[in-house]
Amino acid sequence: MTKQLANLVKIAKQKLDTQEKSLLRNQTLIARKYADIDSINIQIATIPIPSSGSFSAYQSQKDSIQAYLYEIHEIQIQIGILKQEQEYIKQQIRIAHLEHEKTLYLYNQAKDAQTIENNKKEVKQLDEVTIMLHTRQKHVK
User: Euclidean distance between the first and final Cα of the chain, in Å?
Assistant: First the structure.
């Protein structure tokens, strides 16, 4: 029984570890998305705004800035989706943690019960050995 429970504890721990790895991957993706936004903001900051010249040059630079802003908006949408996934993963981690704790508790209870049973058997065997030795000593005298 304890062997089966030990296997269940291992499985529950593996599920918990898998969820924690998923959370780390998700957080890494979110950090990368923010880094992408930062790099786009740097690119926007380096675009020179013409103070004189043709309107088409100004319009061209305005369009490129708009394209960058659109890209930032798309990345922010992706970050929102990743944050929703992160909340779901956190819920799954809570569930996996509870399952792991439950199976660990049951395993420890079974292990303690088995230890008590083994101790009772050992005491009984020692009593039997003592009785046999005592009986043998009576017969030898």
Answer: 47
**pTM more than 0.85:** no
Please give the structure tokens belonging to residue 119: 């101790």
Tokens of 70: 């659109």
Read off the tokens for 51. Answer: 């103070």
For residue 57, what are its two tokens?
């040059």
Helix intervals (H) in the chain: 2-46, 55-140
Q: Of the ranges 52-56, 64-68, 78-82, 93-97, which one carries the lowest mean pLDDT score?
A: 52-56
For the chain, the residue count is: 141
pLDDT interval class at 141 (50, 70, 90): low
- Please provide residue 40's backbone torsions phi and psi, each rounded to the nearest 5 degrees: -65, -40
Enter the tokens of residue 47.
Answer: 């675009």
Structure tokens at 60: 């061209």
- The packing angle between helices 2-46 and 55-140, to 10°, is 160
Query: Residue 100: what residue type?
Result: H
- Per-position b or e across 104-131, b if 16+ CB within 10 A of its CB: beebeebeeeeeeeeeeeeeeeeeeeee
